[in-house]
């Protein structure tokens, strides 16, 4: 493949969600419409993050090239008419509310949309692991009638996942707004 040309290169290697998106948004604000940014990241979750962020803001996700453990994401800045404010999913639940629901034995599905390695080291017992990047192709594993609480590390990927589920007809979906970084309830990990 010929070398892709970008107007700006942004180094986000070693950063975890949500920092690659935070830095990309700041850098994108400095670009002119039509310019392309190359975002270099090592967080595997950044692929789904970049795709979801671009979809939610109106900027164009062009593609990703992997070189070793570095993901090079290419995004094009849209014109002012194409850009929109990122949507936030309206239905939220706090970590404390979710802990109380689980402790009371309420029938809820906890969907963890982090990457497999994140899930392996710290997760809510019984949570289903479907990384955000695989969610659309694995919707059949979920019941659209169930009450589903979606969690990630900080609430960003889960926000995008909730929007996707709602678009696909899931009616009882809530974003666990604080995510696993603030989770103080029961947790488990692989042995």
What does this protein structure show overall?
- It is a single chain.
- The protein has 191 residues and is α/β, with parallel strands linked by helices.
- It contains six helices and nine strands, in the order E-H-E-H-E-E-E-H-E-H-E-H-E-H-E.
- The protein is 29% helix and 22% strand.
- The strands form two sheets. Strands 5-9-8-6-7 form a five-stranded parallel sheet.
- Helix 1 (19-30) links the parallel strand 1 (8-12) and strand 2 (36-41).
- The longest helix is centred in the first third of the chain and has 12 residues, at 19-30.
- The chain is globular, with a radius of gyration of 17 Å.
Give the secondary structure arrangement, pairings included.
Blueprint: E1 8-12, H1 19-30, E2 36-41, H2 46-57, E3 60-67, E4 70-76, E5 92-93, H3 95-103, E6 109-112, H4 116-121, E7 128-129, H5 132-135, E8 148-151, H6 156-167, E9 173-176
Parallel strand pairs: 1-2, 5-9, 6-7, 6-8, 8-9
Antiparallel strand pairs: 2-4, 3-4
